[in-house]
Design a protein that fits this description.
Length: 489
Amino acid sequence: MDMLALSFLIVASVFFLVFVLISATFIGLWLSEIGLWVSWIPIFLVIASVYFLIRDYLVPFDILSVVFIGISIGLNIFTTLRLFVPFVEVYATNNYLKKAMENSLGKDYLEYVDPFISSRFSKNVRFRLSHYFIGVRTKALEKRVGTIKDVVYKKEDNQQLKLNIHYPKRNGKFSTLIFIHGGGFVIGSKDNPKSDRICKLLANYGYVVFNVDYRLAPLSFIKKETSLIEDLIICDMVSDIRASIVFASKNTETYNGIPEELFLFGRSAGGHLALITAFSCLGKFFELKDSDGSIKEHEILGVVAFYPITNFTKLYDYYGKQNLLKYLLYKGAGGTPEEFQYLYQVFSPISYLSEINCKEIPPVFLATGEKDKLVAPEQSKLLYSKLQTLGVESVMLDLPWANHGFDTVLNGPGGQLALKYLSQFLVWVLTKYKLRKIEELAKKRGLGNIVSKEKYRMLHKLKKQNFDKEQDMNQFLPFIEYFYEETDE
C-alpha cells in the first residue's frame, strides 16, 4: 500500500508542478486555456485517492500511506481549482471587456455598423462552452475558405520571401488583412498550424488574409557575431512587412479583396512589427511606380497587436538581473539601454506617438494577459495609456488569467473572447472609414457637412425590411449608389 500511496503523491506532484507552477511562467504559455480538457486527471486522482483512503481506514492501515494520500488529495484539489480559474472568471471578464470596448469606442459603437460590409462579426459576445469542446472545425473552415500557399512576394539577398493567402469562398468584396507571426524575431513561420488556423478563421469572418514570412534574426546574435538591433535587422523585417503590404494591395482584388481597406495584425514579435510599421510611417507610406514614375499611397486602416513589445527599455528593466530573457535582449541589442539609448528608442513603437503625429496614427486594438511573464502586460498598458492621452482611437483587452499566447487555443476562453471582440473592432473601423469617405464625397459635391449617421439609420432600416429586392430595391438604388460610388477625380 505504501508504494501505491507514493505513486499517488508523485503523480499529484507532477500535475501540480506542470499545471500550477509552470503554467504561471513564460514557459507555460497557454496551459491555462486547456484546463477543462485535462481537469479530469486530478479529479480522477482525488476520487481514487479517497477510495483507497477509505479502504485503508476500514482495514489495518499504514499511517504513512494515509499521509501520502492525504497530501495527494490536497494537491489535486488545488490543481483542479487552478485549472477552473479561467472558466469561473470568463463571464465576469466578458462584462469587463464589453465595458472596455464601450469606454473606448462609445456605447453605440455597434449601432451604426455598415450593413453592407461583407465581413461578419459577433454582435453579442459570450463564451460558448460547447464550442470549447468542439474545437475548430478545420474541415468546415476549408470548405468556406480558399488557400494559396507559398506565393513569393519579395526577393532579397538570394532569398525568396513567401506568404500564404486565405480568402472567403463566397460572393462579396472583402477587406484585406496582413497577418504577422510571432516568435521573438528569431523563430516562427507562416506555416505554423496555430497561425494557419487563426488566418482561416479571419478569412471565414470575411477578410482576404495574407500570412507573411519575413527575415528572421540569426541565432548567432547570442554569440555576439551580430546584433538584432545594432545591425538594424528589425529594419529589414519592417521592410519586408511593407513589401507584403504593397504586394497585397496589388493582388488582393484577385480574391475579391479591397486594396484600400487594409489592416495589420501581429502577435507577440509580430505585434511589435505591426505597430512599428504603422507608427513609423503614420499609417501611410508611398510606393514609387517604376513604369510611369507616379506615386501610389498605401493607407493602413487599423493595427491589431496581441501582447506586443512596445517599449524595449521598459521591457529590459522588467526582467530580473539573472533572467534569461533579459540576457537575450541584452545580446540582441548589443548592450544596455544606457549604452544604446537611441536604438532602444527608435525600435520602440511608443516612441513614435506624439501630439504632432497622433492624428495620423490609425486605430489600434491591443490584447494582453495579466499572467504574461514573457512580455509584461504593462507593455500594452503603457501604449494604450499614451494612445488615449493623445486621443488616438484605441482599445485594450486585458484578460486576468491569460498567459502569453493565450489565443493559440482558439476556442479557449481567451481565444473566443478576444477574437470575437476583434471582429467587432474591425467592422467598427471599416464603418468609420466609410463615414469619412461619405463626408469627403459630400464636401466635394458642395453638400457641406452631412449627418452621416442619419444616412446609416436609413441603410439599416433598408437592410432589415422584408421587401422584394427586384421591385422595392430600385427606389433605394440612387441613394445607395450615391453614397458608395468612387469619388470622381
